[in-house]
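Fold it.
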Amino acid sequence: MKKWLTHQTKHLGRRLGFDIIRYQPRSHPVAQQMDLVRRLGVDLVIDVGANDGIFGRKLRELGYRGRIISFEPIAEVFERLKASVANDDLWDVVGVACGETSGEVDIHVSANSVSSSLMKVTEKSVTSAPASAAVRDERVKVRRLDDELKELRRGESRLWLKIDTQGFEMPVLLGAPETLQDSVMMQLEMSFVDLYEGQVLFDELYRWVLDRGFRMSLFDGVHWHAETGELLFADGVFHRPERLLDAN
């Protein structure tokens, strides 16, 4: 009876455009991420490329109650982010971009804002997602993540570093060697094709992360080209197995 009900529920869900899967750490990506947060004892989430805070809000909905520090450089989007966390005393927001060196640069603001980048968007990106096209440039401050966190950390030592900077992930990493040392978990948007000019693609970025002691946990947020079926990008989630607090 149980199997029949499960089959019927899944069948109905798929007819309605949904896929129903069991929420458990060994099979469900969201459950697996939150299980890693618990087992790694994450005490600070660093959200680089926060946009209006969607990633942090998701964590709060899933039960994470620790500190979050979010970075978002676009002025209009930053104001929305700041307003959305006004009542959360454990969530700090910073209105700068992160990179390998400090200074000022132009960010190319996309029509949908979430595709905005310090790198120029390619034609392949625009053909697969027209709203990723840049509509204006905005001058923003860039700071090394290590320098910013010296002023913001409160003794936390088990970090989850999340970077979603639309092709600019490697410069962020290069400006954060100290942060990486204390990171027990990391999440990166990783592209398989050139969506931004000059970005580091999956194969090189993956090897770079492995060389620093991380191991891949799962893929999340996978995106394909709607017309060609080509895999475009995904969020790679990594952790340090030796930093797990338990083996259960």
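DSSP finds nine helices and ten strands in the chain.
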